[in-house]
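Narrative of activities, Objective 1.

The group set out to show that a structural description can be obtained from nothing but a protein's sequence at a throughput compatible with the screening campaign. Below is one input-output pair from the validation batch, recorded exactly as produced.
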Amino acid sequence: MRFSGEVDWVATIDVQPIIDWILPIDFEEWPQQTRLEDGAIRPAMVTDLSWHDFGEQVSDAVAETLQHYPGCRAANVMLTVVMPRHNIPPHIDQQPPYWVGRIHIPLTTNDESRFIVGESAHHMNVGNSYIVNTEVMHAVENAGSTPRIHLMFDINA
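Output recorded for this entry:
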């Protein structure tokens, strides 16, 4: 049942309620931020489900996606942001034996944002969910002028 591809579309998801919730929250409020040399912030991710009612805000999208994976459950629910002209360097994630795949649901993106898996670059569209294989080399590149925010979670059998 483990996803062995690179990236695959799962479903269309109504993300507008999540977008309406997240956009008014200033990036200065995001946890795990670091300051760059120019003083700009680089928020990394949100894993605290109580942060601004995060868990409740995303529960419908998570449940809707899980309908495509009967008998599975969500784990490691998180929000991630890659700021304009930033990236996440290539890396491989170690996953437990019961791991099926990681879901990405784009909330904001731009035409110059890419999820790179192996040798392939993929643009993920807002309003869709995708399963990705993080057990192979992958990276994120946001060469655009707007932040790329994704809701992500692991699917476990």
